[in-house]
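Hey forum,

I'm writing up a methods section and want to include a predicted complex as supplementary material. The small molecule is flavin mononucleotide. I've pasted the protein sequence and the SMILES. Can someone with a working setup run it? I'll credit the forum in the acknowledgements.
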Amino acid sequence: MEKSMFNFQLDEERCIQCGECALDCPAGVITMMDGLPRFNEEGGCFLCQHCLAVCPTGAVSILGKNPDESQALAGTFPDAAQMTALIKGRRSVRRYRDEEVAAGLIDELLDVAAYAPTGVNAQGVLFTVVKERTVMQALRLEVMERLGSLKKSGGLPDGFIGQYMGGAVTAWVEEGRDIIFRGAPHLLITSAPKASPCPSQDTLIALTTFQLLAHTHGLGTVWDGLFMMVLSLCPDLAGRLGIPEQHLPGYAMAFGWPAVEYHRTVQRGPALVNVVR
Ligand SMILES: Cc1cc2nc3c(=O)[nH]c(=O)nc-3n(C[C@H](O)[C@H](O)[C@H](O)COP(=O)(O)O)c2cc1C
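Reply by user p_vandermeer:
Happy to help. Structure tokens for the complex are below, copy them as they are.
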């Protein structure tokens, strides 16, 4: 048995010598020798675990992971019609019930969203989440107060950001309407180390993954570009929310139990397609 920091282990009794682990390794660090896979620890393994996932008999372990503890996949994916309905039927939700999502469900969603792909498998996405309604309400009040002060002092920028933020203050002060967070009880912000290969893409893919999964649980979500504008106007806020200085705040998403039900899809398309010939 080989031992390394990657801890590649082969159960020779289970191995059927099919070579799938070597064929599928994107870094090419596994080669077949005398019918058995051999792992090259100098080869640039980037911890993707494809070797563990592709082995038909569960003979391969890496990073100390027991293949028998992975979820078996045969027949478990949603079918194409279900995925199509989810993608077409998901709507931005802007009306929420005044009810907290159970912390355990939020944890479960985040643990699954953390399976989203990341460039070079960096897995550096941080999920900054507001789990408690009271904390969300305090954030809402803080944001509205800060925007109100900026508006009063002429500190809002010219152009569409200033217009949106000014409109948000007016809606809040005159009607008690929160168009920054759409009255949602929870907020999720993804960030990733600026030094990672694809921080911006990683954060967006993680949020997209979270969003689709959240909707399968009956939750509602809305991408929160207006809060991203708030972050750009209040540069200290990301740090105060615990987002590390060396992270790029990727995007924000408000979520909660919806107070609205959509009965049919919208109708879009056809896709704008440019076929290369
Ligand atoms: C990057 C991005 C930022 C968005 N920001 C906001 C926002 O700040 N507030 C909001 O109510 N909706 C926001 N939306 C939702 C869009 O308005 C919405 O996706 C679009 O109108 C299509 O509606 P649908 O999501 O229901 O299909 C945002 C969407 C995206 C993709």
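Some notes you might quote in the supplement: The mean pLDDT is 97. The domain at 89-256 is CATH 3.40.109.10 (NADH Oxidase).
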